[in-house]
Design goal:
The protein is mainly alpha-helical. It has seven helices and no strands. It is globular and about 50 Å long.
Amino acid sequence: VRRALGEQGTTPPATAEPPTLAAIQEAVCTVGGLTRQELLSPRRSARVVRSRQLAMYLARELTPLTLTEIARGFDRDHTTVLHAVRSVSARLEPGSETAETVHRVRAALGREQPDQSLKPTSPTPGPQRSGS
């Protein structure tokens, strides 16, 4: 189609399929220097908690999963996911460590180019979905 439209030199668009919850967890672990086992553990160290919250936030932002479905993937309940989304949203100031980490994870997932400037993310979760 690109050849027919004369768009040979353009880069392919970002994948239309949303990432899986496991892919988001793995990307957060890679960027955060954790194992997936640590991320899913009941540990409450600041490093683990912030990474877990970030993974829950990105799952909510990048997938069509409900809060309950995301919670199941972390062996938590939906209120924990809601708290994580709100907590990460509150820390997403431009240039903040949280914003930089979100940018790196999105780049690892192929959702944005590593050299793109940070775009502020909406501080509120997306539209309410059933099953929350």
